[in-house]
Amino acid sequence: MKNKIIDILSENIEQMSKEDIAAALEIPKKTDMGDFAFPCFRLAKAFRKAPNMIAEELTAQINEKGYDIFDKVVNVGAYINFFLAKEAFAKEIMKTVDTADFGAGTEGEGKTVCIDYSSPNVAKNFHVGHLRTTIIGNSLYKIYSKLGYHVERINHLGDWGTQFGKLIVAYKKWGSKEAVEKNGIDELMKIYVKFHQEAEKDDSLNDQAREWFVKMEQGDEEALAIWQWFKDISLVEYKRIYKLLGMDFDHFTGESFYRDKTHEVVEKLQEKDLLVESEGAHIVSLDEYDMAPCLIMKKDGSSIYATRDLAALLYRKRTYNFDKCIYVTGLEQKLHFAQVFKVIELLGYDWYQNLVHVPYGLVSMEGGKLSTRNGNVIYAEQILHEAIEKIHEIINEKNPDLPNKEEVSRQVGIGAILFNDLYNQRIKDVIFNWDKILNFDGETGPYIQYTYARCASVFRKVGAVELPAEVDYSVLTDDATMNLLKDLTRFPQVIKEAAEKYEPFMIARFAVSVAQHFNKFYHDCQINVEDENVKMARLKVVDVTMRVIKSALDLLGIECPEQM
């Protein structure tokens, strides 16, 4: 029905494209203002008239043509307000929403998107800060896949760099094979923190660390053997956490994968006369772009992460021929990616325009910023298990006889953490507040999951029933039902906007809105009634709502339990 309105407006407004009309068309917050509203402000320049006069003329023009999909079309100020013929509207919506692929798009067919996310630093615990990139990246993967894109999920592990020289020094001075094998990554973190404490008193430790990293770059067997051991230990923990989150990757190609590919970057920069020496190091000057220089090689000849990111981009473009490459990292890396993308541009690659940095804010608990260097860190696995345990306690209190309590606790606990992260714009900081996160009544993951379970409970109460292809649409013209159906129609557009703006929060907010509208419908419209026409029509509404909620939560990486 929305598309029909867009077509009608397009017939009557030659000065705007259908795309612009679709973007401007609104759903009024108050039902007495109509089902859809179109603002005429943007037409003022083209029509050379005041917006309210334009709205008045277009309203008269549309009414004169007598479109049968409207009960009435009225002019309110600078707006054209459309009141739809409710039964026809309900039928149109139900037929649109009641499809297996509702919300899916085709704009991505034949196109590839690389998404670089999660990327924890090897030999360091996976803390709550890593959750943000993992959660946001996974949701973007699902959103782009829904639109038909082929997505390459890349975990660019931080598994190379001077920090491993530091860790090797720490291991040799204060560690032991037995302790590392027994305590795993916790032991590696312990000696890593100790290194920084001791290096503040003895700077020669930093020199030793740099020497060990140079050995790694030169292929020293002992250095690489210790490094690989640290990496293997770390991956065991990371993969356990990804499994708990229900996530996976297509590639675990970290920085080390590109260490033999950085020479290509250096050669290309030399060919373009972009590489200059500065205090013994080699850089690309970016002064004319108001940016600090991009460091390519350190004084000792070793590479740096910018070099490896450049090598990764050349490799990914050659290997995947991506149409877009997205990096999901913290806001503090904004300059780094601006430098890397600018260097790609200076090398003459026009696909630099398809490189996107998607930044996000910090994660904190009780107002404290997280820091691995100082040992003040909250582990992701700890947070996830605590959420599961807290939900288990709530279920034991409210529904002790619930089947599969452990599995439901996992689904709701993990879902609560994911939703809390994705509910606001990604650039905003995330603060853990257990009372808010686990609330079954607020705008939370558990609230939406509970709404889905409520839908499922309707069908359990009704029993086995086969829903007809057609229902009595006149039953669905009350305000509560119409508001729910109108909300459901937004799903495809919300997905597209979430992809365009790299903002999963749009899906999260949509899911909350649908849940709220459904619960109003559930309260106002009795479903399991004797009148078969009413019953089937309302069950059909429950069915499509249930599927849309499930699809929306899936785009956030959240599962839907049938009972809670």
Tell me what you see in this structure.
With 564 residues, this protein is of the alpha/beta class. Helices cover 54% and strands 11% of the residues. It is built from 22 helices and 13 strands. The strands form four sheets. The protein has a four-stranded parallel β-sheet, with helices on both faces. Helix 5 packs parallel to helix 19, helix 15 packs across helix 16 and helix 21 runs antiparallel to helix 22. About 1% of the residues have low confidence.
Structural class per helix/strand content? alpha/beta
Strand percentage: 5-15%
Give the number of DSSP strands: 13
* Radius of gyration from CA coordinates: 28 Å
Oligomer: single chain
Poorly predicted runs are 370-375
Sheet with the most strands, sense and barrel status: 4 strands, parallel
- Shape from CA axes? globular
- Major sheet: order of its strands? 5-4-9-10
Nearest-integer average pLDDT: 93
Distance between the ends: 35 Å
User: Portion of residues in helices?
Assistant: 40-55%
Helical run tally: 22
Layout: helices, strands, pairs:
Elements (H helix, E strand, L loop, with lengths): L1 H11 L5 H7 L11 E4 L4 H4 L3 H15 L4 E7 L2 E6 L1 H12 L14 E5 L11 H19 L3 E5 L7 H13 L2 H7 L1 H15 L4 H14 L3 H25 L16 H10 L3 E4 L2 E4 L9 E4 L7 H16 L3 E7 L3 H13 L8 E6 L2 E3 L2 E2 L10 H19 L6 H18 L7 E3 L1 H4 L7 H18 L16 H10 L2 H11 L3 H20 L7 H24 L9
Parallel strand pairs: 4-5, 4-9, 9-10, 11-13
Antiparallel strand pairs: 1-3, 2-3, 6-7, 7-8, 11-12
Helix pairs in contact: 5-19, 6-20, 7-9, 7-10, 8-9, 10-11, 12-13, 13-14, 15-16, 18-21, 18-22, 19-21, 20-21, 21-22
